[in-house]
Write a structure and sequence with these properties.
By secondary structure, the protein is α/β, with parallel strands linked by helices. It has helices at about 15-30, 40-50, 65-75, 90-100, 110-140, and strands at about 10, 30-35, 55, 80-85, 105. Helix content is about 50%, strand content about 15%. A 5-stranded parallel beta sheet has the order 2-1-3-4-5, with helices on both faces.
């Protein structure tokens, strides 16, 4: 059984102008993107909304991107996360990948590149969901 699901993104960044501009450009490409201006707001929205891929800024006041990533992976393990920063360092890239980030982008990045990375992450999630469904079906058939 194949279900066609459209990717839903969430952009998380403390720069509201970046969020608004990027959200509009993503919408023009045919995708829905929610926005959040903080890690706490992101986590709250993930409780209420289906989101497949989070594009997460590393440097934010309060809960930074690394701490937000830890919380996402703990509470919503199937959500794919792409770290985004204007302050790229090898250390934060390595830390993000160790904590479960799918990929890492530096600002400025084109909307095309952002969507391409999000699509890769989304496809990874779909494959994982299919494996989980197959394992559950196999388990039920053995009962």
């Amino acid at each position: 059984m194949v279900t066609l699901v459209k990717m839903r993104l969430m952009l998380v960044d403390d720069e509201e102008r970046f969020l608004q501009t990027t959200q509009k450009m993503i919408a023009k490409k045919g995708y829905e993107a929610l926005t959040a201006t903080s890690g706490a707001e992101c986590l709250k929205k993930l409780e209420e909304e289906l989101v497949h891929v989070v594009i997460l800024d590393v440097k934010m006041p309060g809960m930074d991107g690394v701490e937000t990533l830890k919380q996402i992976k703990q509470r919503f393990p199937l959500v794919e996360v792409i770290m985004l920063t204007g302050h790229a360092t090898a250390a934060s890239a390595v830390e993000g990948m160790k904590l479960g980030a799918t990929d890492y982008l530096t600002k400025p990045t084109s909307v095309e590149e952002l969507i391409a990375k999000a699509e890769e992450a989304f496809n990874k999630r779909i494959v994982l969901e299919q494996k989980i469904q197959m394992a559950e079906a196999l388990k039920k058939s053995q009962i």
